[in-house]
Design a protein that fits this description.
The chain has 241 residues and is mainly alpha-helical. It contains 11 helices and no strands. Helix 2 packs across helix 5.
Length: 241
Amino acid sequence: MSLPPSCADAAVSRISTYPRGEDTRLRILRAALEVFATEGYEGASTRLLARRAGVNLPAIQYYFGSKEGLYEAVIDHIAERMETQMTPVTAEIRVALSTGAPSRKELLTLLLRMLDSFVELIMDRASPDWESRALFFARAEIESAAALEPLYQRVMRRIVEPCAALVGQLLGRPAEDRKTLLHAIAVIGQVSIFCSRKSQRVLGYQTAGGEAAAKAIQAVVREHTMAIFRNFADEGKDASV
């Protein structure tokens, strides 16, 4: 049974309006990241999102269900990139801790390598959306977006937990011990502070930086981290601050 001409035309229109292409989906995601970063969640209308992405308004619903779904997809897209960057070193840490008793030198080497990877992640200028990512998270933190919770869980799994496991071994304390976690978060904080637009502005990294900036930050973080654990070099020494 054939469709009446008007119905057939509508069906063809829907197919052409919503191409099932990953390129279109990624274009919407990238445009949404920029819009959410500059306008915030409330200020980003679906009409503006669609216009920036160069798609018809119903395409947002077709690919993501709603503005909220698109916002969550943007966070998931960023989280996937974070996991891609951090997974190799966290997998190495997991293997080292599960297959033997790494020496203090090996533990510290793994910790420094993990921090290096974290610096590379936040200072990556190769991606054209790096500035939008920084502004997106600055806004999301202010807005206390509940949608960030899945990202926090991934950060815990890929950054905080491996760091705490290594710090616990270095301090001779359980990974879940309160003081272990305090030290682990302090160590991570040396890197995460450079996510701040204020820090980047002071250092001139908003429009420059890249590999040279990453190496400079890595060197300082390594120096500080080695100094921190030099104080706890003797096994069993009290790790209180």
